[in-house]
Design the sequence.
């Protein structure tokens, strides 16, 4: 099944891996990785990789124009959508945080690809899926994988989803998701522990932001990290680091309670989930 916006958390992990490799810095401007002749954004303060990964870039939710046929969202490479409908972020802190930007994470994936000098699917495989043996996690499912595709309510077709490569294009399985979440709880070695710690690090407090919209779906968002959202512990709830998702016919939720050694991933057919929440 397509895990939709949980893909963003994996994009954040690739970003972390490249920062540890000293290929990029979180405060690098997106402009540094733009194609020749492209200015990002067209005016105002520069957008950083951290802005893209924490929903604070000001990039709109969708690109203007008609969505390409059989694609899960309207996005694309930096050269084709750079600057289109892309306001600069606030020039002074605090910044606004807006919901689940699609193009922002696709621009981030494109920038990471350029920084690493290799296609993003190759980079994704090297940093995420290969070390964990996630053989069914991909942007380009085979006919055999498509034959096993779980179908939710109003499911999208089983197609190449590289058009949403950083924001929501990943296909995976429960077994692969278990491997990924288990690694976030129990890293294999010290290098993987550093990767985990930096991936789950929070970068903005709620009070740091001038506004916050669409981020309280699963509960109050107290801190924002690299796609992940942290909810502080309360009298009847532990600290939770979570990411919500919706797409491919399902609503999804990945959550970690690190101090309780618990991780969960839930996917429910969209219509049933909406009925339950109503």
Sequence:
């Amino acid at each position: 099944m397509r895990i939709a916006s949980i893909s963003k958390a994996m994009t954040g992990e690739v970003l972390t891996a490249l920062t540890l490799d000293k290929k990029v810095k979180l405060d690098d401007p997106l402009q540094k990785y733009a194609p020749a002749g492209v200015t990002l954004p067209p005016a105002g303060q520069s957008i950083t990789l951290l802005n893209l990964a924490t929903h604070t870039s000001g990039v709109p939710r969708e690109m203007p124009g008609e969505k390409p046929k059989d694609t899960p969202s309207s996005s694309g490479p930096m050269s084709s959508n750079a600057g289109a409908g892309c306001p600069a972020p606030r020039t002074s802190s605090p910044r606004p945080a807006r919901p689940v930007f699609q193009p922002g994470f696709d621009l981030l994936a494109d920038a990471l690809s350029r920084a690493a000098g290799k296609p993003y699917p190759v980079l994704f495989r090297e940093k995420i899926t290969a070390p964990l043996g996630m053989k069914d996690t991909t942007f380009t499912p085979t006919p055999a994988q498509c034959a096993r595709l779980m179908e939710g309510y109003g499911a999208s077709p089983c197609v190449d989803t590289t058009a949403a490569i950083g924001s929501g294009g990943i296909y995976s399985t429960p077994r692969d998701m278990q491997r990924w979440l288990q690694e976030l709880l129990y890293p294999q070695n010290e290098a993987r522990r550093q990767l985990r710690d930096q991936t789950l690090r929070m970068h903005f407090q709620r009070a740091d932001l001038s506004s916050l919209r669409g981020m309280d779906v699963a509960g109050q968002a107290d801190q924002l990290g690299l796609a992940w959202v942290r909810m502080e512990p309360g009298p009847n709830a532990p600290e939770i680091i979570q990411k919500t998702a919706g797409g491919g016919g399902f609503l999804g939720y990945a959550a970690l309670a690190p101090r309780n050694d618990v991780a969960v991933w839930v996917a429910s057919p969209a219509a049933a989930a909406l009925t339950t929440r109503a």
User: Anything to note?
Assistant: The longest strand covers residues 240-247. The CA atoms of residues 90 and 265 lie 34 Å apart. The radius of gyration is 18 Å. Residues 79-93, 273-278 have pLDDT under 50 and may be disordered.
